[in-house]
Fold this sequence. Notes:
Layout: H1 2-33, H2 50-57, H3 60-75, H4 83-117, H5 122-147, H6 155-160, H7 163-173
Amino acid sequence: MLWLANRLGAAGAMYFGLTAFGRLWRVLALACFGVAAPPLMDAPEKSASLREFWARRWDTTIQCLLHRCVYVPLAGPPSAGGGAASLTAARARRRMLAVAATFLASGAMHCYPLLVAHGFAPRAWALVARMAAYFAVQGALCFCEARGWVGALSPWLAVLLPSPLFTAAMVDLL
């Protein structure tokens, strides 16, 4: 039980740390460069669904990058031919692929620095596999939510319950 509390506490510390970093970044960008930087977070606590949490509110800088470089190229416009029903089905398949690839890319962006920092040691690979599993779980939950299989998930429960997968790698590698 203490292990779980430790990991959930680490998740909370990451959230508040990222929030503080985002605010500091905005102040520094304005003070040093006269640039009004966009907020790092867009009130993630107000998310009505898990998809809204990841697509619009959490780490908007990385979300924008992943949306432009991964999601849009894969989800693009539906292909011509086959009638309206097949266009819709084809677009839905591309969107599912794009969501999966986006979570895969985000997982890689989080895992790779840890592997490099720990010299690609076997222990690091095992912990990074758990971190990657967190992103797989989040992608699967977004898929289930989009299909209507689970209704609108509570974003905080969906993010926090599997968070030990993510935070274990961070805490154990320190």
